[in-house]
Amino acid sequence: RNTPLLGALAAGHFPLAEAVAATSSTQWQQGAEYEAEFLWAFTLQLLGRTPPASPVALERVLVPLEKVGKEPYSSRVAVARALASSDRTAFSEAFSTACLEHGLNIEKRARSLSTPVTSFAPHRFIWLEGLALLRLAERAGIAPEDTSFRYCPPLARVPMTVTYTGDWALQTTPAE
To answer: Is there a contact between 171 and 23 (Cβ–Cβ < 8 Å)?
Structure first.
């Protein structure tokens, strides 16, 4: 559900993130999605705006998220609040906790025989949400000094300097 927005944020392509957020639902689709997942997606939309939504607007989403999301979202809520208040120390602590929780979850899924390997493989070693949150912290000027976060390798956080011009292996335009 959040992959397009997370991809744009992780890439630091904030105009694209804004466009994705503008086309995303701002109303919970009861029965079609979990309320906590919707509230977190909406939180990411608010954080990805340029400029980011006000702390007051963010709190209107975070308070209900704390109530319905409980434990799985507590570190994410702390990350969002740290981003909203531009608090580097709080962000570093909350992000480290969220990263640890993500790692525990991903390793549990990796050991499970019921995990579908094909759909799980792309998420096994890279945490796209974590990369997006780090990029938001970078934009806010509160990026952690420690860059050794598991599932968020430093190479994945290097700013893009070259525009994609096509695939070297597959020709996407007709041959002349």
So the answer is: no
Rounded CA-CA distance 172/175 in Å is: 9
Q: Output phi, psi for 33, to 5 deg.
A: -155, 160
Contact 79, 95 (CB under 8 A): yes
What is the predicted pLDDT for the residue at 161? 75
User: What residue ranges do the domains of the chain occupy?
Assistant: 3-157
Q: Which has the closest alpha carbon to 41: 88, 82, 9?
A: 9
Give the Cβ contact number of residue 34 at 10 Å. Answer: 12
Write the burial class of residue 85 (CB in 10 Å: 0-12 exposed, 13-18 middle, 19+ buried): middle
Q: How far apart are CA 176 and CA 173, in angstroms?
A: 9
Q: What is the pLDDT of residues 39-90, one digit of tens each?
A: 999 999 999 998 988 999 999 999 999 999 778 899 999 999 999 999 999 9
Low-confidence ranges of the chain (pLDDT < 50): none
Spatial separation of the C-alpha atoms in residues 148 and 169, rounded to whole Å: 33
